Predict the structure.
Amino acid sequence: MVRWRNLQLVILPDNGRCFCEAARTGAPKFANWDCLEGFSCPRRVLPAATRRFHRPTCLRDQRAEVPSFLETYKQAVEFPPATHDFETFLARAEPNTEVVLHGYLGPRADLSKKLSFVKLTDPTMKYSLQVVAFAKNDAFEKLKALNANSPVAVRGTVQKKKAKASDTADQPAEDMWELALEDINALNDFPKDIIMTPETVFAPEQRYLQLRSDAELREALRFRAQVRNVCKKELEENSQPPFVEIETPLLFKSTPEGAREFLVPTRRPGLAYALPQSPQQYKQILMASGLPRYFQFARCFRDEDLRADRQPEFTQLDLEMSFAKGEDVMRTIEGVIRRLWSTLMKDPAPEGPFRRLPYQEAMARYGSDKPDTRYGMEIIRLDHALPVDLVNKISGLQDPIVEAFKVESNENDPAETGQFIAQFLDSPAGAPFNNNPDGGPGVFVYNGKQPLCGLQPFGFEAAEQVEEILEPDHGDLIILQARPRAPFSGGSTPIGDLRRALHAFAVSTGFKPAPTGFDFMWVVDFPLFSPSSDSEPGQGGAAGIASTHHPFTAPKTAADVDMLLSDPTQAVADHYDLVVNGVELGGGSRRIHDAAVQEFILRDILKMPAERLADFSHLLDALRAGCPPHAGLALGFDRLVAVMLGKESVRDVIAFPKTGKGGDDAMVRAPSPMTAEALETYHLRLRE
Amino acid sequence: MVRWRNLQLVILPDNGRCFCEAARTGAPKFANWDCLEGFSCPRRVLPAATRRFHRPTCLRDQRAEVPSFLETYKQAVEFPPATHDFETFLARAEPNTEVVLHGYLGPRADLSKKLSFVKLTDPTMKYSLQVVAFAKNDAFEKLKALNANSPVAVRGTVQKKKAKASDTADQPAEDMWELALEDINALNDFPKDIIMTPETVFAPEQRYLQLRSDAELREALRFRAQVRNVCKKELEENSQPPFVEIETPLLFKSTPEGAREFLVPTRRPGLAYALPQSPQQYKQILMASGLPRYFQFARCFRDEDLRADRQPEFTQLDLEMSFAKGEDVMRTIEGVIRRLWSTLMKDPAPEGPFRRLPYQEAMARYGSDKPDTRYGMEIIRLDHALPVDLVNKISGLQDPIVEAFKVESNENDPAETGQFIAQFLDSPAGAPFNNNPDGGPGVFVYNGKQPLCGLQPFGFEAAEQVEEILEPDHGDLIILQARPRAPFSGGSTPIGDLRRALHAFAVSTGFKPAPTGFDFMWVVDFPLFSPSSDSEPGQGGAAGIASTHHPFTAPKTAADVDMLLSDPTQAVADHYDLVVNGVELGGGSRRIHDAAVQEFILRDILKMPAERLADFSHLLDALRAGCPPHAGLALGFDRLVAVMLGKESVRDVIAFPKTGKGGDDAMVRAPSPMTAEALETYHLRLRE
């Protein structure tokens, strides 16, 4: 038991050095100095000057004196409760009444030695009120000892502000009232050396300062909560039977579905849980369990490298419905989106069902399975029209597919267009396209003042065809790009990437206006299977193909079921991605609800080894017990909120995002080293 | 690329053996038989007879034939959408209209070769409707081929049921209407050999069957969603400023707060995240970030052994408020509880603020820090009144504290009372009390017909005092129990445990009636620090004491702040536990909001080594940046729902609970072995 009666505390003076520096220079001396060894300098966050360290030192036979920081704290322990929140106060303020308000101090203006003004901002930092302090009582001196941004409790008398010439009838209540200071309780101290303005950008380590100084960021979190509520309301109130929010486990099992899973070792040697990539299997089992409508804001995990729109942990609005097909899910989600837009956005979402764009068409016309279709620049296949020598010039490929798109110029000025495309190709955004091993882009500026309007390399005949197909105007840009002659697979083509990058560059340089509005669509008719690559963690099958999305996706029609036997790569999936403005908001599918078919796909099509197949036995057993047909979807919730707020990164709508490339939480410094003790508990050793 | 054109499928006959058995006995032969090696028998769940396995075998130059299970599935791919959900249908049924309804078949009654009746139960399994099938079309035969419980889509003509004598005006709509079968789509098959009645108890592996057969369990999940919504509504709508639902990370950092944490290794050698025991630190940082009211239904994790009321992952309603003291949080939670009870329960919660019971008083009067106070049996200290030789008889301890309680007998029959207590002490529930090394319970039956009413061992004088203190009636039981002379610490005393166990036994045997109603209270004034034991993972300090709850708990008053210097073990915490009927629903505290004080507690009182202290630097930095005072609480959400529904175990209110002692999910079989590949990815090896 520690006894404190014989201790006295000595406080290291706040002398602008953090403790480890003080130790090095040996400034102060303490009886138990040696205990400090091994202390790592935590100076990385705040400037050294603000750090204080307190050390007790044994001085025998002295009574304890209460150190000043405990005295300060005792003052803050007891503070008067607020009589009003600001919103209520401003709505019902009455002159000459006494109120207590809580909040943060603003910067103080000392008008004279006897008169100061200071703003008091409420705890939500939405409202503020002027406080007038006269040198008539202690409170005046107390106020003067406090730094701006410090939390306080203020007691004061309500008084009407003197009217100014500029006042209008509808001026905000904040401008009508002020408080004559009677007393003030300092609740904590804001360090003088932290500079905090609405413009300050703090390091990720100081997320709390970013949140506190950045009203837009705090508002994004409030907005996120509203988005959540609207989604919930629509699912719970506008569906019959209603969707029910059901939680599913996060300590799940490793099953090979796609991305790499985080493992959670247990104290039983060699056994681990896995954190789920999605609640997919549990929600399907709910459908087999007589719970026909499920939803959840589910935390999901993927052990993948960080990108602007991807976090190792993320939230999805996850749902599933039984006795349902893909169409039912799409209609449900359209209802959610429509309600979100009509409730929370400036303009409602477009009327009627969202457009359906088949995967093959999306890839052909936009070179992307999540196209932004608002800005034209549609891709058109041209190889049939091109002379062989031109094709040979733009690609070293044997008999390639050649596609083209046109960028319309606003100014009809070929020189300006030429300058724009040269600038793009010289920029970091353009570089990867120049270095395409299948050949860089072929660039032509349509120019009525040149022979064949600048299309000489096409030859007369092809130039005429190209004009007929693309209908270019004076000053427009024509881009050609070759790719190998093969069916579409994956999320984009080189010309699709080029279209996107070139458009982004055109917007950022002012060559094109930024597109506006929200263009919702469902991209549908994905192939059920795609060629698998060895480099990524896959579904563990040996067939050379993998499910394009996940192995529980159902074939779309009876004809696609037949295709499973004749040529599975030709089978179309009942999968649908919700895409808006080039962003994939989420995706879903009808699932295979028949155990025999599911087993056939895992075993005979994907050629999973028997031991991996056994990992799915719980799902097969659940399907086998008379599971009804079902379909569902997951919306990337972080991304949905980011899109609604027009934010580039999901980090701007997450309170504490991971920021480092390795998935670091820079603020708490996670991940951190496993201790020898922890490794032993979990029967593990580090590999050398 | 796999080519399937040359494959034919052979289906293993459903011959009552699972595949591995078939393999052992060698019944069927396939071309690629050898691939089956290493297949582990998944027979644990369904009876072997229901398992079917399908194997392709290469037979050259044969065209594919579509195997029957794919043909069956093709039928289920296309099915008509329901024209109505049952609720809408029953409200608006019109005779002679044609409808399509989805649902599950009930058992079929064949009245003749040409007439059958079958119930159709809707997807929620709340409603059902009679279907009449005549042998006039295909549908009749299709129906007869289907097992009960199979999911179907039924097309039929609505007709009014013939009125019966027993019919009343307010009979349910289900009994007024029936459907004449026109067509039926089989959507899946329910195996004949699964016996499913409302009474069947399925193994944890078959949770989906339990959920599907057990209406009460499904209803518990719906109720849980309602509880969630009511809590949310109260916090969002009835607080000014409103609480905002904010998600905090689950990939957190290992910090020494109490329970053992699960680790999540990363691909960076030796580094791991930890899953949070609670969002404690993040929510405190939110308070420093200008977000004054936070709540979240937070998933939390503790690597501890399973108990009926404890899961390795659990959900808590977590909240925090700034510019607030403990009282503000208690008032908020009383509002939540009151709204829950008035909205969802039979009787509303009692009016007015909940009773406050100080820890010392709870321990003295009930021997528990979460007492059920509804049934009396209050504990009274007796050692001052007892003769030394009696004390020596009931305990080998030197100068023990002796406490007593009385169990009133309803029958006033000493013989019955004697039998009851003997039965208890002989039962498994009573055994641990007999084996108490500090002495077993002293048992006395008050009996007016015996000398000194059965209190002879007390001697005349003490017996008289005991009668005065306990006021026993004829047939009442008096229990004495000794314990070492030491201050209260921990959650209960031996006599408190005895009181609880004896009462539970009395209720289970009918000796006492079960107490009714809900008795809410706040247990307050816990000691800030308690002696720490080496056996449990603690806060990593070297002081021999640990924070009773967690090291962020604030001392209650200025006097308790002073106590930090003079005798920290005497300091009282501003901590509060919400207790109802002997169950702790949750707890919370005011937090230390001052960095210097927090650092002082961690470093100088708990004597954490510097490197552990550095783990908290993010929190200290956030407090240092002018953090306002704040307080919060976490309600065990699983337990709250269980208490509201009168369930013994939280497992009855969780869709997929862990059931094994080691935290197993028996259904999906998690945890599971880590593969060599996974270990390598995370730079780990198993310890031999």
